[in-house]
């Protein structure tokens, strides 16, 4: 029972030694040197050595066996290149630090200061632990340390989810009853899919523009609707043109730009405006801007209207997706969406939809994946850049035995018509 008291005494002694050595850098260095046998004292010494490069260097020397001290050393070493080099040298036996440095280089990540970098390292460390634990479970898909791996799940959700915000003009959100049964082309009986192809991939047919990136703007609703309109324009006119999401973010007065909206609002804006201009003419900025009214007359692609797919009906969604890309809403808020790496996604997720994406086809794996459900899937085009998922796409399990579809994919599906 005497050991805690001794540690406290050493800690107080080290702090006192450094405090009275305020005018003598050599004394501070010596204080660090005599702390060699006690990790707690070394940590305290390092903490008060922030204003003395020599003391910090000495702290790194005695920190070889203490990961906590090494991390602290890195955080206080921001303004001293020699200390940074030494910190990297003594961190050589911490694989996570080296992995994080490689990850930062790959994704071009830079932080405002060493303290923020240290915080992000710890978030990254926890996410990697989640990834490794999940991937050891034999699921139908894998997770990876993608570009969102230094974000907590709360930060991730705040950054990229933008479906469902109330409109500026008080416009109500689409309701499920709006998605009542409709006469779907080729529909003979409730679950008759005998007339649709076994698989469709609109990417291979040339109807899908390259994956885009919404950035930190909650404009998923605009990207989901635009991808569906780009696909329809190609199918009807043979022209694959990248259209402007920024025009919708800036000019659709019913939505709230980066704070959210619905795909149906995007379609209605294009109908009322008699078209939408190109991305080249009105490029994406990822922030709310002032509407460039002169661009509203540059109507490159127009639509006659849009059609809601019957809610809670994956068979109807299948028939629609066989004919063109379809905008859908999903629950993408879980860490498994955040860190998705590839494979047929089988959950967990809910029917509480919060993100807009586009179904650009469907298919099934050659073999069943086992007890997680069928190998059938939707091809989901996301708007988080090509660094996420399977080059920007997800394979989402289809026919999972859930009325709303996995992640609510069959709740609020809609597509434009010409």
Note the topology:
Layout: H1 3-20, H2 25-34, H3 39-47, H4 53-62, H5 67-76, H6 81-90, H7 95-107, H8 114-135, E1 141-143, H9 153-160, E2 200-201, H10 220-237, H11 245-251, H12 263-273, E3 305-308, H13 314-321, E4 326-330, H14 335-338, E5 340-345, E6 355-364, E7 376-381, E8 393-397, E9 414-417
Parallel strand pairs: 5-8
Antiparallel strand pairs: 1-5, 2-6, 3-9, 4-6, 6-7, 7-8
Q: What descriptive keywords fit this protein?
A:
disordered N terminus, Peptidase_C1A_papain-like, 7-stranded mixed β-sheet, alpha+beta, Pept_his_AS, two-stranded antiparallel ribbon, about 40% helix, disulfide bond, 2 domains, single chain, about 425 residues, globular, about 10% strand, Cathepsin B, Chain A
In the residues, how many domains can be counted?
Answer: 2
Q: How does the helix and strand content classify structurally?
A: alpha+beta
Strand-residue proportion: 5-15%
Give the topology string: H per helix, E per strand: HHHHHHHHEHEHHHEHEHEEEEE
What would CATH call the homologous superfamily of the largest domain?
Answer: Cysteine proteinases
Average residue pLDDT: 81
